[in-house]
Each structure stands twice: as structure tokens, then as C-alpha cells.
Amino acid sequence: MLELKRLTSVDALNRLQEEARPLLGLRHYNRAPGQEKYQILICGGTGCTSSGSMNIRDALQAAIDSRGLHDRVSIVVTGCHGFCELGPLVIFYPGGIFYVRVQPEDADELIKTTVLEGKTVERLHYQGRTGKTPRHSYRDMLFYNLQKRLVLRNCGRIDPENIFEYIANGGYQGIAKALAMGREATLEEVFNSGLRGRGGAGFPTGRKWAQVAAHTEEPVKYIVCNGDEGDPGAFMDRSCMEGDPHKVIEGMIVAGVATGSTEGYIYVRAEYPMAVHRLTIAIEQAKELGLLGDNILGSGFNFHMHINCGAGAFVCGEGSAMTASIEGNRGMPRTKPPRSVDKGLYGKPTCLNNVETFANVPDIIKKGADWFKSVGTEGSSGTKAFALTGNVVNTGLIEVPMGTTMREVVYDIGGGIKNGKAFKAVQIGGPSGGCLTEAHMDLPMDFDSLKKAGAIIGSGGLVVMDEDTCMVSIAQFFMNFICNESCGKCTPCREGTTRMLDILTRITKGNGRPGDIEELRSLAKMIQNSSLCGLGKTAPNPVLSTLANFEDEYREHIFDKKCRTGSCRSLTTYVIDPAICKGCTKCARNCPAGAITGELKKPHHIDTDKCIKCGTCKTGCPFGAIKEA
After folding, report:
1. 104, 93 in Cβ contact below 8 A?
2. How many CA atoms are closer than 13 Å to the CA of 363, on its beta-carbon side?
């Protein structure tokens, strides 16, 4: 039985790794001769948990106990497996037998068939894109095969609340090596790796760390991890903190070694209670093993870590607003310089990176800068995690090498557009990002290529949109989000974005005027040039990118009073085709505004002055006689 007993040397850590390895002994694809034991991995990420995966765990445990199999079968709750579209997800090892959309009532059949009979439950396998070819193992699925999971390697494979499983998988060897290498060599390794910040701007991580390390006169310096992740549709950092919290912690400790910092803060939005819970457990376990606190592994190096829960303000993703929030003040950005690397948290030099950036660091130290640079592109080393959402067949959490094209992500990993619809655009980088179109599908997704295209990677949200998406409404949605989340400190952001939202709302309601497009562009330029912080400067991006690629839709809304997708109800007119209408009266009976009149078995008519454009008549017409004009 492994104990949380303080480790006083690297040798002790190595011995513990050997002792812990049997915990992972079953998690391979091929059954060992005579092996009769099973491990069942249940996705315990937020998505699957909200779909009832913990009820499935209880049902599986009951089935195991009722058959007296507790010595042969064990259950492990992991972090997110990634294929959120198919949750709740359950994997049986050995074999990596992959089951999707599992329900508690399936538990007894799964245990009986998989464990006792050595077969699989065909109906619970992923059926492939054609719906005809079951995929028994996730190694047979393109969704996983086309990824390269470095940051997310442990997510879905280990128990995030068990530090021994992380150590068994090589955990904390990065900090052991960094302590042996020393500050300068550790800093040089990160610098040479070409790692760039994964929070949005893509600033070279090694250069930022070097700026903090240069403050040798300061007795106190800070490491701050941005786990706020406020972009709509983004959940990469959340999944990493939930599924592999120790990797983030280890990366922060290495940063402490490289910069001479002894205090770390993880800033997590309070809407991520599972991430906070698992990080809290991980920090306490690391303390008990002597991997956090004073005299780590007997090296004389001290590092202490704290969790700070934010209130969910989008602006607190900006560095100076985040440090203000940690200090107990209102989260608002300040003017720069000085920058955080010189005067950040509590006025001290501060190294601030996001979750994914820190999670890359342990493997860079263990495997070397050249290994990391072998993945990705020349200017953007490594991989990038994305939250793939929207009108795409396979939604979920993915990780691919930098430089992977949008076409590969949307069509190969994502399985294409839902319901056979045509692709229209991808919003990348959240509210601060921009839209990419069919013309950009073969563009490498890396920092520099996307910047040239007028977009940014941002934190990694990818929202896929099909032919039925109104791009003016999309711009309005993101601008509404930005207005609500603006801290209000500077006038350009506070008033300029509000004015842009007013214009966009007016356009979608059919009240657009000549000159609106020009005014939107003028306001966008003003906001970009004069806002206080980076969030304000990028606030107009969704409007500018949709204007650049879909100006014809704006002009249709303004001049033709028409929304080609029918999304803007104020611009939609419903008419009844008299050649098709059978006079069944169903539409008249269902109309909440009493706008439809007509006699039984005769064509009906819609009074456009009374019509509230709810679409109930069109949806309910059994003959398809009601059209959008």
C-alpha cells in the first residue's frame, strides 16, 4: 500500500515511481498471457459527469460486487477523454475497449459480456462515420489517431486525484531534472524549445521567464497560472486542470526554479468547481510527498502554491487585471509599462502563463528542447489543444501539432459538418479572435500564419459554423459578450463597443442605415488604437473579420432588408404558397398572434402586420406550404 510519505531525495522519487507502476499495469492494448484482471476507466470530466457518468460508476460497481468480481475488476475515474460528443465514455482495459453513450442500465451487460464472456457489447461501440463499422478500441478511431496528445496525454488515462498514478507515469521527473540542472540550464532549455505562450498572444515563454529571472535583486518573485479561460466555447484549460492537475503544478515549480521564484498562484474561475477541487487535492498530496513546500526533494529549493478563485470576469484573463484580482482589488487592467515581468503581483516581478503553457514544461525538461521542436512548425513549436464545438459532427477536446490545417481539424478529426450542410466559417480565438472561411481551410494553424490572416489562435476555442449561420448575428453575439464583460475602465472599450453593439443590433432588426459599415470600421479602428488593455484592442476582431469575409451579408441586411439564413427574425417574412396549401387550418390554430386567416380546405393568408415572425407556422405545416420570403 503506497503512503503519502515525504520524499527527501530524487532517489526516493525514483523508487516511488517503480513502486507505483503496477497501478497502471493494466492500461495497455494487448492482454498479457493468463491475465484475467480488468480496469474500467470512466470519464469524470465536467461534460460526462453532467451526463451522469458517476451514476454509471455506481452501477458498474454494483454489478461487479453482485458477481463477486471485486478482486478481478477495478474502476478508475479519470479526467476528460476528449470525445465529448459521445459521452458518457467508458473504457475497459486491457484492450482499450471503448464504449460510448453508456447508461447505468448498461452496467450489468457490460460486466457480463466484457469481463465474463470476453466479448464486447456491439451496440455501445462508436459506429464510425457511416454508422456501419463499429470501432472496438479508440486506437481505431480517426478522432484520436489524427491527434498528437502531449499536454493531454494523461487526461482520460490516470486518476487525477491520485498522485501515485501521475508519478507512475513519469510525473515530477521534470522537477527532479530541473533541480539537478540548475536555474540557468533550465531557463536555457525552455528558451531553446521555442515554446510560446498558449494563452493567446504567443509570446516566447523562455524570453518572459528570462526577464523575471533577471531581477536578481528581488527577494520575492511570483509565478501565476492563468486558469480563468473565459472564451465562449473554450474548455481546454479546464479539462487539463481536471484531468492532469499535477502536470500544471509541476510546470509551475519548474518555472520557479528557472526564475528564482518561490511563490505560485493558480487563478481559476469559480465556475470550474471540479478543477478547483482536484487542484486542491493535488496540491495537498504534493505537499505531503515533499514535492511542494520547503526543501523540495532535499534540494534546498522552496516553492509554495495557492489557489485563487475568480468571479468569472472575462477581463481577468488579462495579466494586470488578474493580479489586481488576486490582490483583492477589482479586476481591472492598468497602464503599461511597467509590465508584469517587472512589477506584477504585489508590485513584484511576476511570470504569468496559462495552464497549457505550464503543462508543456515538464516534458520539455525531461525530453529536451530538440524533442519539443521536432513537433509543430519552425516558428510555433509543439502542439495546441483546441475545444472543437459548433456545427461539426465530432465535438470535443483535441490536441494537434502546430501547423495542422483547419481542413484536417474540421473534416478529418471533426468528421465534417453536421447534417451534410456546407461549411461556412470557423470562429477561432474566442471574442478576441476572428472568422476563417473556406479560403483559409488549408492555412497552417500556427501563431504567425493566423496573424497574417487577421485571426489569432487565442486560448484555442474553435466554433464551426455551417451555411445556415448568419455572420452579422455572430458578430452581434460576440460584441454583446464583450460589452457585458468590459471592465469599463477606459472610454474607448466601454463606449466604443457599446456603440458597435447598438449598430449591429439595429442591422439585425432590419433598421440598418447607409454608412453603418463605414461607422463600424471607424469605431473598430479607434478601439484598437486607444484601448487600455489587450482585450480591448482585440474586441473589434469578430466584427472586422466578418466584414472582411462576409460584407455582402451586411449589405443584404442593410439595403435589401434580408437575412439569407433566416436567423434574423425581424428580416424574415413568411408567406403561404396557395398552390401547396391544403387549407388544413393547422397553421391558423397554432399561430400565437392570430395572423393567419382562411377557410377550411382553401388556401390561407398571413397578415404580415400581425405576424411576430416566430416561425411556428412554418415548423408545423405538414405540406411545406409556408416559405420565408
Report:
1. no
2. 21
